[in-house]
Amino acid sequence: MSEPWTIARVARWATDDFCARGLDSPRLEAEVLLAHALGVPRINLFLELERPLSADELARYRALITRRRAREPVAYLIGEREFYGRSFRVDARVLVPRPDTEALVDVALRRTASRALYGRALDVCTGSGCVAVTIARERPTWRVTATELSADALDVARDNAHRLGAHTLALLEGDLFAPVAGRRFELVTANPPYIPDTEIDTLDADVRDFEPRLALSGGADGFQVTRRVIAEAGEVLAPRGVLALEIMAGTSAEVTERLRAARFEDVEVTRDHTGLERVVSGVWPG
User: Fold this and answer.
1) Superfamily assignment of 91-283 in CATH?
2) How far apart are CA 128 and CA 156, in angstroms?
3) I need a labelling partner for 145 at 20 to 30 A (CA). Which of 29, 43, 64, 227 fits?
4) What is the SS3 assignment for 91?
């Protein structure tokens, strides 16, 4: 009689398989996918290590393994990704939220702390809505608006806003600031696409082959959208309003120069959790 496929055995097998294929976190990914296939929290795996999997459970897990071997992101396979302590639904319509982007939220909240009781915030290129929803939840007395060019991405953001109780968040379809022309905000955040087109094909397959090109492509030099955000933000920022931009690592000097040339004051560069320069922010003089 062959050895049964217990939770412990199948997790070891998947970990070894992912390790051989060069995945960065083979054990973690094997366990996350197994918990998803079984419909249980990951901690439950360790409470039932010797439980054999049913044929259906094993089939579901093997299907997930096959997709991950093709480098489909784990977040798409399980349909969610944690960001700022909340679980956001994600799929191939949106960029997977990164821990790096939490630095953008940190900067936005810190630089508007003096206005914590009331303000108006705008998040452009909102994607899954992770930044906008987080600001709306962290600042429940603020009025928060988000814009997104992709109607498909906006559907994901709406779902996340509804599920996570971002009741003060208004989501608008359109290009950057066009949907909010004539309005003013104390805070503008943006995580624009900033990968130079010539570098997209060099990205990891997880990103290159699965995440939406619209959310990645920053044009020939990577600044196509960033330039527009900096140039146009003054039209919607209130006096002493804050603009916070996520940037590609290694470009802080150029983005800082662009902000100062556009009349922004008190320009700061902030590092992410890995120590890379990730956010550039400044104050609009009005």
Assistant:
1) Vaccinia Virus protein VP39 (3.40.50.150)
2) 6
3) 227
4) coil
Q: Does domain 7-70 have CATH number 3.20.20.70?
A: no
Model's pTM, two decimal places?
A: 0.92
CB atoms within 10 A of CB 131: 29
Domain range summary for the chain, segments of one domain joined by +:
7-70, 91-283
How would DSSP label each residue in 133-199? HHHHHHSTTSEEEEEES-HHHHHHHHHHHHHTT-TTEEEEESSTTGGGTT--EEEEEE----B-HHH
pLDDT tens digits, 236-275: 999 999 999 999 999 999 999 999 999 999 999 999 999 9
CB of 122 within 8 A of CB of 101?
no
Tens-digit pLDDT profile for residues 198-214:
999 999 999 999 999 99
Tell me: the pLDDT tens digits for 69-119?
A: 999 999 999 999 999 999 999 999 999 999 999 999 999 999 999 999 999
